[in-house]
Amino acid sequence: MYIRERGAPASTTAAEATALSALQAGAGLRGWIETVALAAAVALVLWAGAVRADPVPGAGRVGGGIFGANGGATPAIPGWNPKAQSTNSTTAPTGPGLGTIGIEAPEFPQVPGKPKVPASANAWRRSAIAMAGSSGFQATALCGCVFDPNLFSATFTGIDPRTCGYLPRRPVPESRRVAPLRVVPDVVLSHGRPCMDQPASTYVDADGHRIEPAQWCATHDPLVMAERNDLFNTMVEVEEIVVDTVGMHPGIAPQAPTPYGTCPVRLDHRANTFEPPDAAKGRIARIWLYMSEIWGIYVAPAELETYKKWHQAHPPTREELTWGKAVALDQGMENPYLPIPDSERWGLPPRIDKRFLDPNAK
Predict the structure, then answer these.
(1) Spatial CA neighbour of 79 closest among 208, 220, 191
(2) CB neighbours of residue 154 within 10 Å
(3) What is the pTM of this model?
(4) 187-218: per-residue pLDDT in tens?
């Protein structure tokens, strides 16, 4: 197993024994409650420490980010036999990808030398929504639908279509709530990983149903699991659009339809591309450039040029800079395309080489 199996906290037995002893001694109800509460608090502290403890050696992309830095290289996972890999492939990864919906990855340890990302799918969802709202993003990233991040839940119905012209393609619950969108899809995160080269019989879910290799990687490869939970790789959007764009790359699709009323999102299923509105292009570009630089994901040359142009043409807004700072302080590593002033770094590691702030740097 490459995922740490965590059992009950070690202090559980002691807590039960303490509580039983208090009852046998004839302690009052108040004393019993205080004893159990204290034991539970100790167990919670031990459990919380275990979540970010026991780092696994990460895995396998040899080579680095888009500028040749060694941002993506990590040691091999024990027990795996990764073949030689490189981000210098001449063909872009293809095939279906996986997004937010339908994947409940178990908790996983952190990858050394990388951002300290949320260790579970639920923690990632909560953090993505909360940080977007607290940074000033009160509308979804693509359609601009106003939502209240404080009311986020599985049955959230607070999207106001009148604020964005969004019309659902179909009457489904996902059209009435928001969800985090993973901008770089799982099929890209899994590209070149040893989890994509397992025997065909490996790719089944817990019920024995056939699943795509990228979906299996999302719950079995610690590096992919960490990448997909990186808060820098998230935007908040109507969940129907999150589902519809799973596995798609952002790009230019001027002839594609806009299937959501006046929401300016174009979907080109033949080219596996969606074109975001201009207001979101810069932010999406900086996410892809960050994921390439920090995690070493592969970006096709044509797409890289598009994202560089978007980055230059659409500089970050005040809300995006505020959000970038919040995520950096939470994860312990900044997005070099959203620089934080030296006076506000508050314990972050030294600034990444400033040449990365210029997308044309060599």
Answers:
(1) 220
(2) 8
(3) 0.69
(4) 999 999 999 999 999 999 888 899 999 989 98
